[in-house]
TrEMBL record:
The protein, known as: Iron(III) dicitrate ABC transporter, ATP-binding protein (FecE)
Swiss-Prot/TrEMBL keywords: ATP-binding, Nucleotide-binding, Transport
Pfam families according to UniProt: ABC_tran
Domain ABC transporter: 2-224
PROSITE patterns: ABC_TRANSPORTER_2
Entry GO MF terms: ATP binding; ATP hydrolysis activity
C-alpha cells in the first residue's frame, strides 16, 4: 500500500506549500517535522481533504483529492490536534462518530487503545492523554487505510506520549501512518521515515538512519548532536 503526494497550496496570494512531494508506505511510520510555520499541518489537511490543494494525492493509484467526504472516509482517517472536549458524550458515543460514513468497529478501536472497559465514562472526565487516545480510537473506528495525526503527543505527559507512539508503531503494520511531530526525539525514536519541511518546501526526505545533524542544524538554526543508544537516537542541542 503506497500513498503518493505532490501538492501545492495557497491562502489567497500567500503560498503555504510549494510542490511538496513524497511517498509513504504501509509498514513504515512517517514523521513530518520542521519549524513552526513550515506548512506541516496544512500538508496533513490537504491529504485529508479538509483543504483543496493543487496536485495529486493517490493511494495505490486511486485519486483521493476528487472524492467526496463519504468516499474519502473509507480511505483516510484524520486525527486533529487535541482540544478540550465540549460536550458530555460517553467515550463510546464519541468514538461512534468516526463510523458515520463507514463500517468500522468501535469495539475493536477502543480495545486497541485500552479504553473499552471505560466506554461508558464521559469524555469530560478524561485527562489530556486519555482524550488523545479517544481521538485515536475514533479515527481507527473509521477504518481508513491511511491514518493522519497532527501533533498527537502535544502537551501530553511522558507516559501518554510514549503510549501514543507505541500504538502508532503497531498500526504501521496494517496502515499507512503519517504523523506531524514537534518532538524530534520522539520522531527519531519511533519513526522509520522523515519528511522535513521549511517555508512550505520539502527540505529532506529519507530514513531516520540517513539523517545527519547538519540537516537539522540548517533547518532549525541551532547546533545539534546525535546520541545513539539502546532505544534509538536522541538529539541534543545548544544555542
Amino acid at each position: 500500500m503506497i500513498l503518493r503526494v505532490n501538492v501545492s497550496f495557497s491562502y489567497g496570494k500567500r503560498k503555504v506549500l510549494k510542490g511538496v512531494s513524497f511517498e509513504a508506505r504501509r509498514g513504515s511510520l512517517l514523521a513530518i517535522i520542521g519549524p513552526n510555520g513550515a506548512g506541516k499541518s496544512t500538508l496533513l489537511k490537504c491529504i485529508a481533504g479538509i483543504l483543496r490543494p493543487d496536485g495529486k494525492v493517490e493511494l495505490d493509484g486511486v485519486d483521493l483529492l476528487h472524492m467526496n467526504p463519504r468516499e474519502r472516509a473509507r480511505f483516510v482517517s484524520y486525527v486533529p490536534q487535541a482540544s478540550v472536549p465540549e460536550f458530555n458524550f460517553t467515550i463510546e458515543e464519541f468514538v461512534e462518530m468516526g463510523t458515520y460514513f463507514t463500517e468500522g468497529s468501535v469495539r475493536n478501536a477502543l480495545r486497541k487503545v485500552g479504553l473499552w472497559d471505560r466506554r461508558k465514562d464521559s469524555v469530560l472526565s478524561l485527562s489530556g492523554g486519555e482524550y488523545q487516545l479517544v481521538l485515536l480510537a475514533r479515527a481507527l473506528a473509521q477504518g481508513g487505510r491511511v491514518i493522519l495525526l497532527d501533533e498527537p503527543t502535544s502537551h501530553l505527559d511522558v507516559n501518554h506520549a510514549l503510549r501514543i507512539m507505541e500504538l502508532l508503531r503497531e498500526l504501521r503494520e496494517e496502515k499507512v501512518v503519517i504523523a506531524v511531530l514537534h518532538d524530534l526525539n520522539l520522531a527519531l525514536r519511533y519513526a522509520n521515515e522523515l519528511l522535513i519541511l521549511k517555508g512550505g518546501e520539502k527540505v529532506w526526505e529519507g530514513s531516520v538512519g540517513a539523517l545527519s545533524p547538519k540537516i537539522l542544524e540548517e533547518v532549525y538554526g541551532v547546533k545539534v548532536e546525535f546520541v545513539r543508544g539502546r532505544f534509538g537516537t536522541a538529539v541534543l542541542s545548544s544555542l
